[in-house]
Write a structure and sequence with these properties.
244 residues; alpha+beta; CNF1/YfiH-like putative cysteine hydrolases; 6-stranded mixed beta sheet; 5-stranded mixed beta sheet; 14 strands; 23% helix; globular
Length: 244
């Protein structure tokens, strides 16, 4: 069975899926849900179907994006013929599962229970800096949500202790609260989850973080940084999804 984590801050059906419970093998074992990997396409389709059904959605109702580390948001509905180039989506349509894939970036799930609107965002540091979280909130408001009623949860992502960065990233983020000293004067440790949570709170929504480290927990999560440190190779992605 597809394994997933939940957070009490979200009343809608949702899951931050781990890599457990799928059919992929080798480096992609087992619940690889990334559509752009070199994994067997049939295995990925089965993995995504298992995840959808674990949430109570039809496999055909699980939406996906061509994620590009930007701040574009699209509305997801019954018609979905291609992969939009975007990093977040929103809907007020029951039965539509919004699915984001990550492998160290932060998946962020949103819900306004009063208005009946959900959202999902892929927030790497670039997307977070350029405003993907705020853009998701605005798109939810366009569907009738109120930011004071929105709850958002940052899912499994690379944790500060695992996320060594250089000065260019620190300067791009431009907020020293989320950096601690690294191994030398040219390196720093970045708190991606904390940064995302702070932006959510500053935008006026209730924000929380799951607190799982994708790099450190190899048994449960895929990690781009872990793959890079190992010298490269195949990379799987875990899914995070929410639906009404």
């Amino acid at each position: 069975m597809a394994e997933f984590l939940t957070h009490a801050g979200l009343a809608a059906r949702h899951g931050f899926f781990t890599r457990r419970g799928g059919v992929s093998t080798g480096a992609y074992a087992a619940l690889n849900c990334g559509l752009r990997s070199e994994d067997d396409a049939a295995a990925v389709a089965e993995n995504r179907a298992r995840a959808a059904m674990a949430l109570g959605a039809a496999p055909t109702a699980l939406r996906a994006l061509r994620q590009v580390h930007g701040a574009t948001v699209v509305e997801a509905g019954p018609a979905w013929d291609a992969l939009p180039e975007a990093d977040a989506m929103v809907t007020r349509a029951p039965g539509i599962a919004l699915g984001i894939v990550t492998a160290d970036c932060a998946p962020v799930l949103f819900h306004d229970a009063q208005a009946g609107v959900v959202g999902a965002a892929h927030a790497g540091w670039k997307g977070a800096v350029t405003g993907v979280l705020e853009a998701t909130i605005a798109a939810m408001e366009a569907l009738g949500a109120s930011r004071g009623a929105i709850s958002a949860v940052v899912g499994p992502c690379i944790a500060q202790a695992s996320y060594e960065v250089r000065a260019d990233l620190r300067d791009a983020v431009d907020d020293p609260r989320f950096f601690t000293p690294g191994k030398d004067s040219a390196h720093f440790q970045f708190d991606l989850a904390g940064y995302c949570k702070a932006r959510l709170l500053a935008a006026g929504v209730r924000g929380a973080a799951l607190g799982a480290d994708t790099l450190a927990d190899e048994a449960r999560f895929f990690s781009h940084r872990r793959r890079t440190l190992a010298g490269g190779g195949p990379l799987g992605h875990q899914l995070s999804a929410i639906m009404l």
